[in-house]
Amino acid sequence: MSRSSDMHQEHESQWSRVRARLRSEVGDAAFNSWLKPLSLLRLRDGEVVLTVPTRFMRDWVVSHYSDRLRSLWSDENSDTRAINVLVNPPAKPSARHADTEGDAEQLSSGGHASEGSRAGSSPEFDIGAPLDPRFTFENFVVGKPNELAFAAAQRVGNAASVPFNPLFLYGGVGLGKTHLMHAIAWHIRGMYPDRKVVYLSAEKFMYQFIRALRFKNVMAFKQQFRSVDVLMIDDVQFIAGKDTTQEEFFHTFNALVDQNRQIVISGDRSPSDLDGIEERMRSRLGWGLVADIHATDYELRLGILQSKAEQAGAKEVPVRVLEFLAHRITSNVRELEGALNRVLAYSNLIGRSITLETTQDVLRDLLRANDRRVTIEDIQKRVAEHFNIRLADMYSARRARAVARPRQVAMYLAKQLTSRSLPEIGRKFGGRDHTTVMHAVRKIDELRQSDSTLSEDIDLLRRMLEA
Ligand code: ADP
Ligand code: MG
Prior knowledge:
Elements: H1 3-26, H2 28-35, E1 39-44, E2 47-52, H3 55-76, E3 82-87, H4 101-108, H5 113-118, H6 147-158, E4 167-170, H7 177-191, E5 197-201, H8 202-214, H9 218-226, E6 230-234, H10 243-258, E7 262-267, H11 279-285, E8 289-292, H12 298-311, H13 319-328, H14 333-350, H15 356-362, H16 364-369, H17 376-387, H18 401-417, H19 422-428, H20 434-450, H21 452-465
Parallel strand pairs: 2-3, 4-7, 4-8, 5-6, 6-7
Antiparallel strand pairs: 1-2
Helix pairs in contact: 1-2, 1-3, 6-7, 8-9, 8-10, 12-13, 12-14, 17-18, 18-20, 19-20, 20-21
The site of adenosine-5'-diphosphate has 17 residues, from helix 7 and helix 14.
């Protein structure tokens, strides 16, 4: 055997060990989707060159797995310096990777190109959109605001037959609709690999339909859609006012429901509130189960942050920072994730650990956008929590130091953080006189000079409330 083929064999066996370790790290589902289709082209001069069948996959692999690939390769082969991923559509099944062929094609097209290309049709028949491997049930944090939607999604994912039709998920932007839909799709693909699951946005549906009209292959278009087992259409509000598309969608919808196929739809509002959707369509959308995803609450936000920090491998994020973010970034989960990522990236870059101060610095613009006006009620609640007293003691007549001092702190903060007058503040504290408030403000000012613990408490509270 020549030296180079020895070498080649050795690289192949290194590669198979890297693959095995990746598989155990990321789990079967992600591995099969993204990593299994990779093949080793060569390892030369410290550069590992891998190939994938599509550009989309290449981008995905590079952005999500390149660090892992590099470090696993370095463990196997200390020469490794760089990983390069090239796009190389599988022309013919090579002996070594024949087994990856099907998966690779399947992925690039959300599950249908394999059928499509076997039938010799062109890529315009890739009717589905790819699924995000992070959007699984396991990665979805459940709380009060989304528990119904989550339960319904799981039900559809697990069901052997159609439990309700359609499942209509609705809620504001960034609250997890797309995540749940992908999770259903992943789950069904895992449990029932024979079922044809198609996920796409209403926008893409329209685009494909218009294309089909233009290229006069509406029949093929119809057939494609009507042969699926599970059809998921994301952001249905997009087809509001688009009459022809709506009409076609309505027919597809009815055809599938008649054949007892599962349909899952998302929208930014409930079917009855969707404007620009024909009445018969609207009523049909509400026939199955309509599940609302509510705005997040503090507990859910904190849970999501903890889970994301863990996934990012960042154990170093202080609880205080997570709590701060959960309090301050209330808009939606996407922004919350974005904020956390920014903080992580920053600390990574400058190689310093994360503190409340750096967090505030890095996120100044975002925090301002999320700024809610601080209310006296917020202040009372926070201060009571902080000092571990009952909220009612903010208004009560009790004068024990243990409650009187926190109450004074709250009055002080109310004066500092709101534009309320002293009498107004007094009224909010159980109808106290404005002179009581004035006295509290003076007293706390004075104490801050000598009592550094109190002073820090107040700074912390203020930051929490306002930043
Ligand atoms: P929508 O489709 O409702 O606009 P997405 O599903 O795209 O929102 O969610 C936005 C981001 O927030 C995604 O990265 C998603 O993973 C994340 N996300 C939303 N809700 C949750 C949740 N409950 N647990 C974990 N991640 C979530
Ligand atoms: Mg979405």
